[in-house]
Amino acid sequence: MHRRFDDRADAGRALAGLLKKYAQRSDVVVLGLPRGGVPVAYEVARALDAPLDVLIVRKLGVPWQCELAMGAIASGDALYVDDELMRETGVSQPEFERVLADEKVQLARREALFRDPQRASVDVAGRVAIVVDDGLATGASMKVAARALRARGPAKIVAALPVAPHDAEERIGGEVDELVCVAAPELFFSVSQFYSDFSETTDDDVRAILARASSASGHA
Questions:
Q1: Out of 60, 135, 175, 206, which could bridge 146 as a Cys pair, Cβ 3.0 to 4.6 Å?
Q2: 8 A C-beta contact, residue 161 and residue 195
Q3: Is the model's pTM score more than 0.85?
Q4: What ranges do the domains of the chain cover?
């Protein structure tokens, strides 16, 4: 088994080491998936000397097992639904619609919270967009993030993860152009098992990280 990461910052530094070919390039942007992916993405962006932005994603959890994703939504009305899981769990369409409506409200709230009205979103058109999360379980969040990004016309979408199941390529390969992962173990139960410190990343943490990245960056 791969060693545990100390925390998300440690995971970000390890991940950045696999992305060196994208360093010091004006056509590269890094996008973190809030909340847990942002501290990882910060370390990647800093190592590559690339601008950092967020791509807001909300998981659509099964009503009675909210950690189990039956789909996900992202900025720009992108939607991914795991039809097979919905059938297996017996989630009805009205139940799905209620979860979807609730998560759309939360997505709009986070857009307002994390978007600085004085700073436009980083332009990804024609650029390499490196999408970072703290790990991958079902793949729902990364799939919907890639779909949201694809509509914005990037030259390439790279999914970058500290850890993911060994079959991550099968889960998200069709949605992204490249998958970079530090560890892809056979025995995978949850993302948290690969971190010594997997404490919650708060909204305030995300805002502070984005402010730090913005003040340190000379990128437009």
A1: 175
A2: no
A3: yes
A4: 8-56+120-216
